[in-house]
């Protein structure tokens, strides 16, 4: 399942270009902060995304959520630089 770009109306899909895995918490077994970019060359849209997955509980089964956020370019650039500087992002 791919994100559809909200800026170009689906002309392009979003690709994850950077990802940083974070420790599990009380709700999720997997958490990742990601930078996503539209694959349409004319669009250039970029955003933050957060992926969370939980495999807890026999009744609940597996649940996941993948959400994108529009943020100012300076915030996005800072997060991207911090992820790029991490020696072990996974």
Q: SSE layout and pairings?
A:
Elements lengths: L2 E2 L8 E10 L7 E9 L7 E9 L8 E7 L3 H13 L5
Antiparallel strand pairs: 1-2, 2-3, 3-4, 4-5
Key traits:
single chain, mainly beta, 90 residues, 5 strands, globular, 5-stranded antiparallel beta sheet
Describe the fold and architecture:
By secondary structure, this protein is mainly β. 14% of the residues lie in helices and 41% in strands. It has a five-stranded antiparallel sheet, with helices on one face. The protein starts with a strand and ends in a 5-residue tail after the last helix. 12% of the residues are buried.
In N-to-C order, the SSE pattern is EEEEEH
SS-derived structural category? mainly beta
DSSP summary: helix tally? 1
Mean pLDDT figure: 86
Beginning-to-end CA distance, first to last residue: 21 Å
Radius of gyration: 14 Å
Q: Rough shape? A: globular
Strand adjacency order, main sheet: 1-2-3-4-5
Helix content: 10-25%
Approximately how much beta-strand content do the residues carry? 35-45%
* Poorly predicted regions: none
């Amino acid at each position: 399942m791919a994100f559809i770009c909200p800026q170009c109306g689906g002309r392009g899909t979003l690709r994850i270009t950077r990802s940083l895995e974070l420790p599990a918490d009380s709700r999720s077994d997997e958490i990742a902060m990601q930078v996503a970019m539209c694959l349409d060359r004319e669009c250039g849209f970029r955003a933050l995304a957060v992926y969370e997955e939980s495999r807890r509980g026999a009744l609940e089964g597996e649940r996941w959520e993948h959400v994108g956020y529009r943020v100012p370019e300076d915030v996005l650039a800072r997060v991207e630089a911090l992820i790029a500087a991490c020696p072990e992002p996974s």
